[in-house]
Design a protein that fits this description.
Radius of gyration of chain C: 24 Å
Distance between the termini of chain A: 67 Å
CATH architecture of the largest domain in chain A: 3-Layer(aba) Sandwich
Shape of chain A: globular
Strand order of the largest sheet of chain A: 4-15-14-13-5-6
Number of helices of chain C: 18
CATH topology of the largest domain in chain A: Dimethylsulfoxide Reductase, domain 2
Helix content of chain C: over 70%
Oligomer: heterotrimer
Helix content of chain A: 25-40%
Chains: A alpha/beta, B alpha+beta, C mainly alpha
Structural class of chain C: mainly alpha
Shape of chain C: globular
Structural class of chain A: alpha/beta
Number of strands of chain A: 26
Largest sheet of chain A: 6 strands, mixed
Order of helices and strands of chain C: HHHHHHHHHHHHHHHHHHEE
CATH class of the largest domain in chain A: Alpha Beta
Strand content of chain C: under 5%
Strand content of chain A: 15-25%
Distance between the termini of chain C: 35 Å
Largest interface: A-B, 78 and 59 residues
């Protein structure tokens, strides 16, 4: 596929790729397929025939490749891109519901002078005015008074903003996302740096492991790259040579991941690192090997601290010791502790002890995406805290916000909302009227992800080095404009023009470096053809395994006890597996039952039935959860699989804005988090302790399950 | 195969009882992670209405596929049972078929699946009562009417034009994505060949990140779905009722 | 026995038995006409309240439900059927009393039936009207209900004759038509009587309805033949209707429903509620309408009371039988269901059903004196109707909660069913009230015929009552 091909050949080619895209053209002149009436359809559409466009899912930052089925200019269905190395044609529930974002009735339909109101303002401006406003903001402020706050996706816009700030001499854009916060990505990459000498996102080769110990990593839900890890899990379960993989999950509350695990070990929050160390020591003893970093660990004390029996740990260590491809991974709430970095290191050291670093079924470092020089992690909570302080000091005069909703995602204790008031001009590029957007002076809405060009780097989950491509699958539904285009135009107006005509040209210019490279999924003689293939196949990736096998270094562990706030109960907040961080405005995600509780459309508080009995609480009683930082009220769900000293609340609901399906529904557990961080700078939200008070109110949770059939409610005694 | 041909009395439908199916599905409960991707994919593909908090909490959700789970034991020895995606089992001898007074749920002789004829349904809900799997969902309200909910006007832009939008008062259920079956067959026919195994699949199987759902021809012993279904740990749900389900569940896995 | 004693004895018998207490024909006719024409303001007050109730509860609510969908009712998964079907079965049950009394008792020549056959037959017809309303309310798309009837059409689409619902619909339609005709036939001589005694619009009204009946020998012969044929023919229809209604449940693949005893169990249940309703109606008629104390006497309550006791025992037997067979079957779902009936949140209803259907009738109706007390028997009748409504409620929504998919088990909470149920009840009473003012509620000719057939005869010094066959 290296010869030059014409547009018509291209269409034929598109037909060959069974599910991949027909692309719309090779230049900006035909960037979009218009919604056309039947009598003047584009030449390649036929009545009743679908056209498929490959693009990248933007419901989280993992960068799964999708193929969007469209017909007559409407996006109809999200399907996985079979060629894409990350998700191999699969999608998660959130990706499937992307269409409800695209056609959401509550999108920001055009540029607005928002004026920091409580509701979406009605005062529309023209795009010329909007660009003028951005240009003024760039021109009339000193570079260090300008700040960009961006989400975890899309990467191309982040790159563009980085170039722009570079040109202006302004501080580099800051990236933040609730998933990054809940996953403690800084901790994970820091642990990798300390152990392997390289700050990178570890890659856990689940597919080839046979015994997997997961310390709080909710890899089947929202963790890092859930579709890829679910595929890995599936392969692990099916096993090699019919040897079924065995999964043990250590966490205080049975998550969806723990629910499908073979064993769930409800250890005390904060003791994960200690337990990993003890298991490492016992496993080494069982193998008759040196315990290395764990030689000073007191397994009996660890068992006591974690609230499990020593026999259990010995049995588990035996499992690990006798496994061919043992694997331990850590994530989620386990790392969001004051000792989170030690926990991450302890678990990685366990892997090192088991000898699986760089081995099949073991730990690798995720390959960098094509063209990427170093792993770039999003801002940790500590960095966000510093940024908020900077805003609060009045040093930031103009703030551009894209793809992130810190007013909702960042704990209230960070004071972002108050700090925002000190900024002279806040310009939001939000597609949806979220909490942060409403607090802005202007909203200049970006296209929805399915209407946009761009790319996203696959940062983990795939063995290949991959850049996932995005292209518009439909003509923009509303009067929105690509933020990249707005920034480029405004920069030009402000006399700081970047050398790109528009977003498309920007993306193309970034791809130019790959044209001469070999080993890619496709090759093309020149950039236009390359760009066309990039759109057709939904990205560019190298076909070879690019996982990095690091040299295992012996870690120096300093296993400290986790520090907790004052309070009765441990709090385990978790990201709702169905809603994710930003799914609450999609009605079908609201109506997709939570995998563990089957609750829909609301927030619940999981309490062990024994504890609830002691507190005289029943299902659906509203309780007030009080922490040092704040309080929330939500109905109780008597959850049989949670430690009696722990309560759990899902994150994802509790919006005060964000459209009709999200606003006024449920509560946000982030309101309970204090600003404490761990050594790596990640929020130590799992160190929160709370008090539970009966609010004396009642609200029936919508559940898919039957309380009668599942819990025997109303069946009288003995059932 | 016993066919009671009601064309004798001029009826268009027929009650068919057949041991051999055509399309079938295998669901591996051991690798199902309960992630709901199938549920949402199904909703997006088949224009299924969402019903809101109150109705969904009152047993009125319209899911064509739902993921069941139960609990075993008490804390700390508590265990969640395997996730069990439950959808229309496309019974060979479906209890829903004979009870419909209007022939709105009939057996397709060509595809050997259980059809719901939306525009023939008068809403007696007898079929749903008689379904041992409780997988039929009823349109209790006009959930898809944009005159009642203006939000639908925008959302229905993504409605699949191959699938009828249902109004109030009628029953619906999983169709094994019959629109995809037909599309694949039409394509194969126009190319003068048979539909290949794995050439297309249902929306749920397509989305499933764990590949726990496999769809295909059960009358072809070489197809993936047939091979999986033949495994010793494959079971049919409520087999004792003699409904001849076309969905095989793989349980255990050890 | 002295002359005096003898006289007293005869007097006592006359007081007790309508058949032995004849009045002149003209006077009796006038009494019936008077009862029809005497309408107090209370009647109209009740009439208008009920009309308003029917307008709101039945027609407005139903219209709203047709427009908005069944979502405003309480039906859900798994209780796809709710109070509408409960009411359908209930009203069909009520309707059984009419046929039972006028056909079976007529065939068996039970003489005490004579004054209240019409009251019972009216219940049949009006009850079936409510049953029809209820079953159509139940449908999701009622505007297409004609698809359920086998009418010839170009596309050759027929209803599914495998479906018990199709049988049900045919059975109910047959029953409605035949019971209406059976109501009408014995009405003809009375309509003729009313025609002869009326003026104005009523005269025209009765003239049309009486079909020119003059009372000739030939007309009587034809009428008798027709009634005889209908009386015999409608008995199997009556039994079959409720058996077929029971098949809606018994033919289904559900725990608690697929029971072979359901046919007779439903029939006896129908008679149970029907007799309870008849006795209640008779109590009300006797208490509120003029001249009715002459026609409806304690002896009738006594007679019906005995029947109620028998039927209650029969119902108890079939209930026990059904329970025993299901319990002994040992199916795990059925076991859960039986447990749910008794120990579930609606357990009170299960016990109330047994108390109202068995305990109270057995306690009260053994006693002849109590049995002859109209208000007491009427109250028992009312309670039996509650009990039987509960029975249907337990069989339908409560049993539907438990199926073979425990993940879906869910309790049913009625919504707009409540105004709609009250609306059908109000409509039933309204129709009855209208009928009581439009047609003779007492079959005068039947009473007169009976009185002619009864006489005192003296055998030696003993006076005995004899009955002769009039043909």
């Amino acid at each position: 596929m290296t010869q030059k091909i014409s547009r018509r050949d291209m269409l034929k080619l598109a037909g060959l790729g069974a599910t991949t895209a027909v692309l719309t053209g090779c230049g900006p002149a035909s960037k979009y397929v218009k919604r056309e009436p039947y009598f003047s359809m584009p030449e390649y559409t036929y009545n009743g025939e679908s056209t498929f466009y490959a693009t990248t899912c933007r419901e989280c930052a993992a960068g799964c490749g999708t193929v969007i089925r469209t017909m007559q200019g409407r996006a109809l269905k999200v399907e996985g891109n079979k060629n894409h190395p990350l998700n191999l044609g699969k999608t998660c529930a959130r990706g499937q519901a992307a269409l409800e974002g695209l056609y959401n009735p509550d999108r920001v339909t055009g540029p607005l002078k928002q004026g920091r109101g409580n509701k979406l303002s009605g005062s529309a401006v023209t795009w010329d005015n909007a660009i003028g406003t951005v240009a003024e903001a760039l021109k009339n402020h000193k570079p260090d008074e300008i700040a960009f706050l961006m989400g975890l996706a899309p990467d191309h816009l982040f790159d563009l903003a980085s170039e722009l700030t570079g040109q202006l001499g302004a501080p580099a854009p800051i990236r933040f996302g609730a998933l990054g916060m809940f996953e403690s990505r800084a901790t994970l990459s820091r642990a990798a740096e300390e152990l392997f000498g390289q700050a990178a996102m570890p890659f856990f080769d689940l597919a080839n492991a046979d015994v997997v110990f997961s310390f709080g990593a909710n890899f089947l839900e929202t963790w890092l790259s859930p579709v890829a890890y679910t595929r890995g899990y599936s392969r692990m379960r099916k096993g090699k040579n019919r040897r079924r993989g065995y999964l043990v999950q250590f966490e205080a509350r049975m998550s969806q991941t723990a629910a499908v695990a073979d064993e769930w070990i409800p250890i005390k929050p904060g003791s994960e690192g200690l337990v990993a160390a003890a298991i490492g020591k016992l496993a080494a003893e069982a193998r008759g090997a040196s315990a290395g970093a764990f030689k000073n660990v007191d397994a009996a004390a660890a068992a006591k601290a974690a609230g499990v029996s020593l026999e259990k740990l010995e049995y588990l260590a035996g499992l690990l010791a006798s496994a061919f491809n043992p694997l331990a991974l850590a994530g989620g709430a386990a790392l969001a502790q004051s000792n989170g970095l030690q926990t991450a290191k302890s678990v990685l050291a366990l892997d090192a002890l088991l000898g699986n670093i760089g081995q099949p079924g073991g730990v690798f470092l995720s390959p960098l995406a094509p063209g990427q020089e170093a792993y770039h992690r999003p801002a940790s909570a500590q960095e966000m805290g510093e940024f908020v302080q900077k805003i609060n000091s009045g040093a930031v005069k103009v703030l551009f916000i894209h793809g992130v909703n810190p007013a909702f995602e960042l704990p209230k204790s960070f004071g972002f909302i108050e700090a925002l008031k000190k900024v002279e001009t806040v310009i939001s590029f939000a597609t949806f009227p979220d909490e942060t957007a409403l607090m802005a002076d202007y909203i200049f809405p970006d296209h929805h992800g399915l209407e946009s060009f761009g790319y996203q780097r696959v940062f983990t989950g795939a063995a290949e080095s991959a850049l996932s491509g995005a292209q518009p699958t439909v003509t923009p539904f509303h009067d929105t404009r690509a933020t990249a285009d707005v920034l480029l135009a405004a920069a030009a107006q402000a006399g700081q023009a970047l050398p790109y005509a528009d977003e498309y040209e920007f993306v193309k210019s970034k791809l130019r470096q790959f044209v001469p490279l070999s080993g890619g999924f496709f090759a093309a003689p020149e950039i236009n053809t390359f760009m066309a293939y990039f759109q057709q196949y939904g990205g560019w990736w190298q076909t070879g395994n690019a996982l990095v096998a690091p040299a295992a270094a012996n870690a120096k562990l300093n296993l400290a006890e986790a520090e907790f706030e004052e309070g009765e109960f441990f709090l385990v907040p978790f990201v709702s597996p169905t809603l994710g961080e930003a799914g609450a405005n999609k009605p079908w995600l609201q109506e997709a039952p939570d995998p563990t509780t089957t609750v829909m459309w609301n927030t619940w508080v999981e309490i062990n039935p024994e504890t609830a009995h002691e507190l005289h609480l029943e299902n659906d009683d509203i309780v007030r959860i009080v922490s040092a930082a704040g309080e929330v009220e939500a109905p109780v769900y008597l959850y049989p699989a949670i430690r009696p000293d722990t309560i759990a609340i899902p994150f994802g609901q509790g919006h005060t804005a964000y459209g009709r399906y999200a606003a006024g529904r449920g509560v946000n557990p982030a309101d309970l988090f204090g600003p404490r961080v761990n050594e790596a700078g990640d929020l130590a939200f799992a160190g929160t302790k709370v008090r539970v008070e009966k609010a004396g109110k009642y609200r029936v949770l919508s559940r898919l399950e039957s309380k009668i059939g599942v819990y025997g409610e109303g069946m009288g005694e003995g059932h | 195969m016993t066919t009671i041909d009601l064309n004798l009395v001029g009826a268009k439908g027929a009650l068919v009882e057949e041991a051999e199916g055509k399309w079938g599905m295998v669901i591996d409960q051991d690798i199902c992670t309960g992630c709901q991707a199938c549920v949402v994919a199904c909703a997006m593909e088949n224009n299924i209405a969402f019903v809101g908090e109150e109705d969904s909490g009152y047993g009125r959700s319209m899911h064509w596929i739902r993921i069941e789970r139960f609990w075993e034991g008490e804390y700390p020895e508590v265990k969640m049972t395997h996730y069990q995606p439950m959808l229309c089992q496309q019974c060979g001898k479906a209890p829903c078929e004979p009870v419909c007074p209007a022939f709105a749920t009939v057996h397709s002789q060509a595809e050997k699946v259980n059809l719901q004829v939306y525009n023939r349904c008068v809403g007696t809900r007898y079929c749903a009562n008689n379904c041992p799997y409780q997988v039929r969902s009823f349109n209790w309200r006009d959930y898809n009417d944009d005159r009642l909910d203006e939000a639908i006007a925008s959302l229905k832009n993504h409605f699949n034009p191959d699938v009828t939008v249902r109004r109030r008062g009628i029953m619906e259920k999983c169709t094994f994505c019959i629109q995809r079956i037909h599309k694949a067959q039409d394509k194969a026919k126009s190319e003068g060949r048979a539909v290949a195994d794995g050439e297309f699949t249902t929306a749920c199987a397509q989305a499933c990140p764990a590949d726990a759902i496999v769809f295909g021809r059960v009358d072809d012993p070489e197809s993936l779905v047939s091979q999986l279904a033949r495994q010793s740990h494959g079971v049919h749900h409520l087999e004792e009722l003699g409904t001849l389900p076309r969905v095989t569940y793989l349980v255990g896995g050890q | 026995m002295s002359e005096k004693q003898q006289h007293d004895h005869e007097k006592h018998l006359r007081e007790e038995h309508l058949m032995l207490d004849p009045l002149p024909r003209g006077q009796m006719n006038d009494m019936v006409m008077e009862s029809m024409h005497t309408t107090s303001w209370k009647f109209w007050a009740v009439f208008f309240i009920l009309s308003a109730f029917v307008a709101w509860g039945l027609f407005y609510s139903w219209g709203k439900m047709i427009l908005e969908g069944l979502g405003i009712a309480g039906v859900n998964r798994p209780s796809y059927w709710g109070i509408f079907l409960v009411n359908t079965v209930f009203w069909i049950g009520i309707s059984h009393a009419g046929t039972f009394i006028s056909a079976i008792l007529r065939v068996f020549k039970a003489e005490f039936r004579r004054p209240f056959t019409r009251a019972a037959e009216l219940m049949t017809t009006f009850g079936l009207v409510q049953a029809g309303f209820s079953i159509f309310m139940h449908m999701g798309r009622v505007w297409l209900s004609y698809w359920l009837f086998p009418y010839p059409n170009q596309r050759e689409l027929w209803p599914n004759f495998h479906s018990p619902l199709t049988w049900d619909l045919l059975a109910i339609t047959t029953y409605l038509l035949s019971s209406t005709m059976y109501l009408f036939l014995p009405l003809i001589p009375d309509l003729a009587m009313a025609r002869d005694k009326s003026t104005g619009w009523r005269k025209n009204f009765y003239k049309v309805l009486a079909l020119g009946f003059r009372g000739t020998e030939g007309e009587w012969t034809h009428l008798r033949h027709a009634m005889n044929i209908f009386a015999w023919a409608i008995i199997p229809v009556m039994f079959s209707v409720h058996t077929i209604v029971s098949w809606d449940f018994a033919m289904a693949t559900r725990p608690g429903w697929s029971s072979s005893i359901f046919g007779p169990y439903f029939v006896i249940g129908a008679l149970h509620s029907g007799m309870g309703a008849v006795v209640l109606v008779l109590g009300v008629v006797r208490g509120t309408m003029k001249n009715m104390k002459y026609f409806i006497r304690p002896e009738h309550f006594d007679g019906i009371g005995k029947l109620m006791l028998m039927i209650s025992m029969g119902w108890g037997y079939f209930f026990f039988n059904d329970y025993l067979v299901q319990w002994y079957g040992g199916d795990k779902w059925t076991k859960q269901l039986l447990h749910w009936h008794e120990a579930g949140p609606m357990g009170w209803m299960w016990f109330a059903m047994l108390i109202f259907n068995v305990v109270i009738p057995w306690a009260v109706l053994w006693n002849r004196k109590w049995r002859s007390t109209p208000w007491l028997v009427g109250t028992v009748g009312l309670l039996i109707n509650f009990g039987m409504w509960f029975e249907r409620y337990i069989i339908i929504p409560i049993s539907l909660t438990i199926n073979r998919a425990p993940f879906t088990w869910r309790l049913y909470k009625p919504g707009i069913e409540i105004p709609l149920s009250l609306g059908t009840l109000a409509f039933f009473i309204l129709l009855y009230m209208a009928a009581s003012r439009l047609i003779p509620l007492i079959p005068v000719w039947e009473v007169q015929e009976g009185q002619m057939a009864h006489e005192f005869k003296k055998f030696g010094r003993e006076t005995v009552v004899t009955v002769s066959e009039l043909e």
